[in-house]
């Protein structure tokens, strides 16, 4: 029977996710009457969040601007699109303006910083090596779009071979080995990223790493907590959608240290998991709402009303400013 729960702190929403969700809610409220809001890509990588925004605010999610024409046949749209926290290639922004639409850019500022630096180094004639875990991840697509001719996608070393579009860090070649800069997706495993950069540094001794790390504070803090808690628990529950990069890295790290289960919500829990588990760790991805964590706690309290909950650590105090609409004014009727 579960006697003790270690709740990771920090866990759940990061500043980028809070900003992005607020941006959608504010834009939907302000544009009410003009029509429905369109969001480019899942605003954050969590199904529950996306579903709530759809239900409460009637937003439409598109993966490609070409889907808008079909949507317009069925719905009145507010001619405004919100870009997700993961960022977009500049070509998407240009296309939106060409369409005569406006946009609200909810790209996390920490992703924007990587975009700006990648573009800067590409403009200086460097080859940009972008380390990621999937060529399909929206953040990777966005950063790649800043300087596609100068950028080579490189697999974080644990993902070598998982996607032929990601080069192997041990064999990747560049036009000028003296001019190479490295950037990373913001949500990778800290340890795997360090290993990958070490491999690249051995191959390209003049490798430039403009920032100490592109991995964001939220990624690092959540991973640190998992590493701290995992040795003390029989089972680690990681609340994350399966397509959340930062959430899946938490699950991988927890799995490497103890038994771990990934769940979307408390509805996924099975009583038999807890038969031999006296202590349980719980964490949640940067896009997982806190009420889902509280549902899991409530479930465990039903199994054992005397449950001890240990929650140490500090909440983060970082906040990002909300973006405003950019583009042609709406012709209000
Ligand atoms: S996980 Fe990090 S980079 Fe991604 S939105 Fe949150 S703060 Fe920004």
Keyword list:
single chain, 333 residues, alpha/beta, 5-stranded parallel sheet, 5-stranded mixed sheet, 10 helices, 13 strands, 36% helix, binds iron/sulfur cluster
Structure description:
By secondary structure, the chain is an alpha/beta fold. It is built from 10 helices and 13 strands. The strands form 3 sheets. Strands 10-9-11-1-12 form a 5-stranded parallel β-sheet. It has a 5-stranded mixed β-sheet with strand order 3-2-4-5-13, sandwiched between helices. A 3-stranded parallel β-sheet has the order 7-6-8, with helices on both faces. Strand 4 (77-83), helix 4 (90-98) and strand 5 (102-105) form a beta-alpha-beta unit. Helix 5 packs parallel to helix 6. The mean pLDDT is 96. It binds iron/sulfur cluster.
Strand order of the largest sheet: 10-9-11-1-12
- Strand proportion, as a percent range, falls in 15-25%
Distance between the termini: 62 Å
Which compounds are bound in this model?
iron/sulfur cluster
Largest sheet: 5 strands, parallel
Sequence of secondary-structure elements: EHEHEHEHEHEHEEHHEHEEHEE
Whole-number radius of gyration?
21 Å
Topology:
Blueprint: E1 4-7, H1 15-30, E2 36-40, H2 47-57, E3 60-62, H3 68-74, E4 77-83, H4 90-98, E5 102-105, H5 109-123, E6 127-132, H6 138-144, E7 151-155, E8 180-184, H7 190-203, H8 217-229, E9 235-239, H9 245-257, E10 259-263, E11 279-284, H10 290-303, E12 308-310, E13 325-326
Parallel strand pairs: 1-11, 1-12, 2-3, 2-4, 4-5, 6-7, 6-8, 9-10, 9-11
Antiparallel strand pairs: 5-13
Helix pairs in contact: 5-6, 8-9
The structure holds iron/sulfur cluster.
């Amino acid at each position: 029977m579960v006697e003790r729960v270690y709740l990771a702190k920090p866990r759940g929403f990061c500043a980028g996710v809070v900003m992005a969700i607020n941006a959608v809610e504010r834009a939907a409220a302000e544009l009410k009457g003009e029509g429905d809001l369109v969001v480019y890509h899942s605003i954050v990588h969590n199904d529950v969040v996306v579903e709530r925004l759809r239900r409460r605010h009637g937003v439409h999610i598109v993966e490609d601007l070409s889907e808008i024409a079909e949507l317009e046949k069925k719905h009145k749209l507010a001619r405004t699109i919100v870009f997700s926290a993961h960022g977009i290639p500049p070509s998407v922004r240009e296309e939106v303006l060409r369409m005569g639409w406006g946009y609200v850019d909810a790209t996390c500022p920490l992703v924007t910083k990587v975009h700006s630096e990648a573009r800067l180094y590409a403009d200086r004639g460097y080859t940009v090596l972008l380390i990621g875990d999937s060529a399909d991840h929206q953040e990777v697509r966005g950063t790649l779009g800043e300087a596609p001719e100068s950028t080579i996608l490189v697999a974080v070393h644990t993902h070598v071979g998982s996607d032929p579009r990601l080069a192997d860090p041990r064999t990747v070649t560049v036009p000028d080995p003296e001019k190479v800069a490295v950037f990373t997706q913001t949500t990778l495993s800290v340890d795997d990223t360090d290993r990958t950069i070490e491999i690249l540094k051995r191959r390209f001794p003049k490798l430039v790493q403009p920032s100490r790390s592109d991995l964001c504070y939220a990624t690092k803090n959540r991973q640190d907590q998992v590493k701290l808690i995992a040795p003390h628990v029989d089972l680690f529950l990681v609340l994350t959608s399966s397509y959340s990069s930062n959430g899946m890295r938490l699950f991988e790290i927890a799995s490497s240290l103890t038994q771990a289960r990934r769940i979307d919500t408390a509805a996924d829990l099975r009583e038999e998991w807890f038969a031999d588990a006296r202590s349980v760790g719980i964490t949640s991805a940067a896009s997982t709402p806190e009420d889902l964590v509280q549902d899991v706690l409530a479930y465990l309290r039903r199994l054992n009303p005397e449950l001890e909950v240990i929650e140490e650590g500090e909440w983060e105090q970082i906040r990002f400013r909300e973006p405003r609409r950019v583009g042609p004014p709406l012709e209000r009727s």
